[in-house]
């Protein structure tokens, strides 16, 4: 795909500075060639502006003078994302419904749905207009899937799951597996039936090999436009609000309540039955054992607010030195006690009756 910079500027409301050229793709500032477009949004990479070979750089007005050719934007990252959509590779050119798919006679598919070979759709499932189900994907009985959803290869949607419009399940994602419910009875482990469901609101994106468990009772719920990275575990009866960002390898135990616009960084573990307020940011590798009020940013295990956490982190590299100092002070104190005892014949700190 080839476009001229002037065409792109006109289409996306950007200002072109410098010579108009043709470009054919997108790349990073460091790796872009003379025919590729790049973007600049993080000041950490400012030194690359003067060295990049990119055809042009999408950037904010205050940096426009630092690039030979620029497309000036008030939101460079967002505009780059919009432009990148033009260059996305379609995963498959398949159209229609494959005769090699297994679709129950009682299932209902909306207009324009695409069902690839070896996909399986169960009884009474309902798919809205324009859904696409890739090979190996499974939609169970009584599922309700909104318009424009995409189930990539080997994604699994188990019975009774509800999905809003424009949801995406990446390869291997599992929605509606049984929650982790067991009880010890007379020395045996008994399974607690998980009779609830999962409900995904509009625009939810579930990463590859992530799992969202069905509720024991009621529903596990993920709010509109929330995004789950790869390898995320969401336990039964969890509720995540709108526009959540749950990064890779996060584990959320059962019955947790998470508010709107919460970011949970990678490898964080969240204990069950706690509440996390709106607009919370949890740093990577955190352990969250108790409630977090709205608006707090922090990290660590156990979780601490950012002020305490930064002080703890700054002390960690000094622990060996501090340990040596404490051992040295302990030795000096012991020597002083011995000297006092030798002089007085009494143990320091003790008063004879």
Brief descriptors of the model:
353 residues; Udp-n-acetylmuramoylalanyl-d-glutamate--2,6- Diaminopimelate Ligase, Chain: A, domain 1; UDP N-Acetylglucosamine Acyltransferase, domain 1; 11-stranded mixed beta sheet; 10-stranded parallel beta sheet; 4 helices; 39 strands
What topology emerges from the helices and strands here?
Blueprint: E1 3-4, H1 5-12, E2 15-17, E3 22-23, E4 25-26, E5 36-39, E6 56-59, E7 70-72, H2 76-84, E8 102-103, E9 108-109, E10 114-115, E11 120-121, E12 126-127, E13 132-133, E14 138-139, E15 144-145, E16 150-151, E17 156-157, E18 162-163, E19 168-169, E20 174-177, E21 182-185, E22 188-191, E23 197-200, E24 205-206, E25 211-213, E26 219-222, E27 227-228, E28 233-234, E29 239-240, E30 245-246, E31 251-252, E32 257-258, E33 263-264, E34 269-270, E35 275-276, E36 281-282, E37 287-288, E38 297-299, E39 304-305, H3 306-315, H4 319-344
Parallel strand pairs: 4-5, 5-6, 6-7, 8-11, 9-12, 10-13, 11-14, 12-15, 13-16, 14-17, 15-18, 16-19, 17-20, 18-23, 19-24, 20-25, 23-26, 24-27, 25-28, 26-29, 27-30, 28-31, 29-32, 30-33, 31-34, 32-35, 33-36, 34-37, 36-38
Antiparallel strand pairs: 1-3, 2-7, 21-22, 38-39
- Tally the helices: what do you get? 4
Oligomer: single chain
Mean pLDDT: 94
Query: Helix coverage percent of residues?
Result: 10-25%
**What portion of residues belong to β-strands?**
25-35%
Q: What is the CATH superfamily of the largest domain?
A: Hexapeptide repeat proteins
Amino- and carboxy-terminal Cα gap: 97 Å
Structural class of the helices, strands and pairings? Answer: alpha/beta
Q: Low-confidence parts lasting 5 or more residues at pLDDT below 50?
A: none
Largest sheet: spatial strand order: 10-13-16-19-24-27-30-33-36-38-39
Radius of gyration: 29 Å
Instruction: Indicate how many domains the architecture comprises.
Output: 3
CATH topology of the largest domain: UDP N-Acetylglucosamine Acyltransferase, domain 1
In total, the number of strands is 39
State the CATH architecture of the largest domain. Answer: 3 Solenoid
Major sheet characteristics: 11 strands, mixed
Using the coordinates above, name the CATH class of the largest domain.
Answer: Mainly Beta
Overall shape: it is flat
